Automatic annotation (TrEMBL):
Residues 8-146 form the N-acetyltransferase domain. CDD domains: NAT_SF (cd04301). PROSITE patterns: GNAT. It holds the Pfam family Acetyltransf_10. It comes from Aeromicrobium camelliae. One of its GO terms (molecular function) is acyltransferase activity, transferring groups other than amino-acyl groups. The keyword Transferase applies. This is GNAT family N-acetyltransferase. Keywords: Transferase.
Length: 148
């Protein structure tokens, strides 16, 4: 059972929220995956970025953020789950929460290549050529909105 995720816009985050979010992303992206680009990109604290996460006493256990890019299309990114919480469906639950809120819109993401089929199971399709980001091979993907 995953429960209800925390959902906060960037301008509503507390210092403790920001610390926890940056901590999980640091552990997963910088330490485990050895990403070679900075994680903090100026998007986290703005009002149009929404952060979703589950947490325990040590902070976020699984996390993602979503925002509308300069192109007007919703993006999902920074999906991260602490190692000891993987395999419990937490990231899936967060992605479903995004679809519940914004599923009528097109949603795009840059999936790490090894996760292409996982994202495809949620209705995402490849929409371009592979690319390198932070030293990791990614696949551009999109999910067509249900509005029409």
């Amino acid at each position: 059972m995953t429960g209800t995720p925390y959902v906060k816009n960037g301008d509503d985050l507390t210092a403790q929220d920001v610390y926890g979010i940056w901590r999980i992303r640091d552990i997963v992206f910088a330490v485990e995956q050895q990403c070679d680009e900075p994680d903090v990109d100026g998007l986290d604290l703005i009002s149009t970025t929404t952060h979703l996460w589950f947490a325990d006493d040590l902070g976020p256990t699984s996390y993602l953020r979503t925002y509308v890019g300069a192109d007007g299309v919703r993006k999902v990114g920074r999906v991260a789950t602490r190692r000891e919480h993987r395999g419990r469906g937490l990231s899936s639950a967060l992605l479903r929460a995004v679809h519940e809120r914004w599923g009528d819109e097109e949603i795009r993401l840059g999936a790490q290549a090894y996760l292409e089929q996982w994202y495809a199971s949620f209705g995402y399709e490849r929409c371009g050529e592979n690319f390198m980001e932070a030293g990791i091979l990614h696949v551009p993907m999109r999910r067509v909105g249900t509005a029409g």
